[in-house]
Amino acid sequence: MKLRFAARFVPLLGLLIAATSPSAVLAQTTIRAEHDEPVESITHRLMVQAAAEIASATQGKVKMDVHPGASLSGGKIPTMIQNTQAGNVDLAIISSRRPLGASTAATCQ
């Protein structure tokens, strides 16, 4: 199941970077990415690895900040969705193992 996530996640990031025009990449671009899993999860490790690969592939012109445990959204999944829709977060990965209204506070302690 987690490998399917990686197979979907990395190509999406590639598309995001490819869609960025060369003139926009001249200055450093920062992607704010958030997920609802704890730091020990494979989701977090894959996102951190993807962030390193993105920085390497773009010679540091594109940087991805990874925020675990829905930390930018107060641990609330609905807030993660709202933040992404509002443009406050560029990328949100939501695990399917929790009900939509559930808080992530219990799993991130």
Based on Cα principal axes, name the global outline. globular
How many helical elements? 4
* Overall pLDDT confidence: 79
Unreliable stretches covering 5 or more consecutive residues: none
Query: What's the total number of strands?
Result: 3
Sequence of strands across the biggest β-sheet? 2-1-3
> What profile does the largest beta sheet have?
3 strands, parallel
Ends distance: 24 Å
Number of domains: 1
Strand percentage lies at 5-15%
Radius of gyration, taken over Cα atoms and rounded to an integer in Å: 14 Å
Query: Which secondary-structure class do the elements indicate?
Result: alpha/beta
How is the quaternary structure best described?
Answer: single chain
Helix content: 40-55%
User: N-to-C SSE series?
Assistant: HHEHEHE
Written account of the structure:
The chain has 109 residues and is α/β, with parallel strands linked by helices. It has one domain. Helices cover 44% and strands 15% of the residues. The protein has a three-stranded parallel beta sheet with strand order 2-1-3, sandwiched between helices. The longest helix has 18 residues. The protein is globular and about 35 Å long. The model has no long low-confidence stretch (mean pLDDT 79).
